[in-house]
Amino acid sequence: MADTKAPDSARRSERSRRAIYDAALALVGEVGYAKTTIEGIAARAGVGKQTIYRWWPSKAAVLLEAFVDLGRQASEALGGDADSGIPDTGDLAADLRFVLRATVDEMNDPTFDAPSRALAAEGVINAELGAQFVQQLLEPQLQHYVRRLEAAQDAGDVRPGIDPRIALELFVGPLAHRWMLRTLPLTHEYADALVDYALHGLTPRD
Amino acid sequence: MADTKAPDSARRSERSRRAIYDAALALVGEVGYAKTTIEGIAARAGVGKQTIYRWWPSKAAVLLEAFVDLGRQASEALGGDADSGIPDTGDLAADLRFVLRATVDEMNDPTFDAPSRALAAEGVINAELGAQFVQQLLEPQLQHYVRRLEAAQDAGDVRPGIDPRIALELFVGPLAHRWMLRTLPLTHEYADALVDYALHGLTPRD
Predict the structure, then answer these.
(1) B118 close to B30: Cβ distance less than 8 angstroms
(2) What CATH architecture applies to the domain A1-59?
(3) Quick one: CA dihedral A192, A195, A79, A90, positive or negative?
(4) What pLDDT digit, counting tens, does each position of B42-85 carry?
(5) Pfam families, alphabetically (chains A, B) (predicted)?
(6) Is residue B107 less than 8 Å (CB to CB) from chain A?
(7) CATH-assigned architecture of domain A85-206
(8) Which of B139, B200, B203 sits opposite A158 (nearest CB)?
(9) B97/chain A closest Cα distance in angstroms
(10) Do B159 and A202 touch (CB under 8 A)?
(11) B5-24 pLDDT per residue, tens
């Protein structure tokens, strides 16, 4: 039965990998980044710490991959996949409302909230981790906005002079601001208002 | 010379108060919020810790007041005072560019950066401190935008249906996002682009 050995081993690895992601996210949400250790993740996941060291060089690497996986799960729950980007139905406002409402739901989800706050807080004071977070997690997501806004420019739905990499921040900046600082509730109505204001501007149209 | 006693004492108090603010901001920037203590602030300021306890109930209270004072100094350096709000020259775009450029300069100032990151990081994970930070430091600043945008609405420069409390987040949200996450440089050109995009919208005007 040598044939079945590799699949069994792959299944075990996949199970361990998932247990390590879950343990890392739960732990960082409970005790914060500084007090999260490889030993703590291993104990909680029920694996040896050598298993973790074999796959990842540091706790930052484990956590970043666990967050990438969390984002992938959120995308799949929305019926898409992590690389599918923002829908393009030809209706830019509707597509942006869709993705911003989904982002609001994710920000309001406790599974996402606690570990994300721990990582975000560490990134604010730890420039090196912050740069990894931006490069590996955030910027790929922001590039989905760039591509959708570029398509809208091609379709004549966004002014030609607009820089999509700046324009996207009118949508994601306010959401992150409310989430990080907890100023006011993150609702679908708020997401819709941001889309309306950013697309059509604040000044009257003659 | 009993007459001079009160002023001397007031001067001493003012000197101690300023030393305590400076020590609190420097310390939290160096060691973070969790490791900042009343004892540490007292030692660094060269005062007894009872002096601090007489004036403030907690380290959070000292720090919040030190930040309010830092903001006041930044306003004065701009030639205004802390309560003067956003200028109203009748040119909304110019007034917003002025205040956002000043905010960018403040965010790029190391005196502001280190202690602000320490407080912001703590606020992301500590809901109680975050709420105090928002209520005492942030929201009063945001209300300056509300009042300026309301005046612009009265002048017909902003659409009547716009909610000023949401609209202001198109300006401050993206700045805070770049500052906290260090995605891309915070420049005057970026501030100007935000004002242009938010006021005039991303879609073409017919």
Answers:
(1) no
(2) Orthogonal Bundle (1.10)
(3) positive
(4) 999 999 999 999 999 999 999 999 998 888 887 777 665 555 68
(5) TetR_C_11, TetR_N
(6) no
(7) Orthogonal Bundle (1.10)
(8) B203
(9) 15
(10) yes
(11) 567 778 878 899 999 999 99
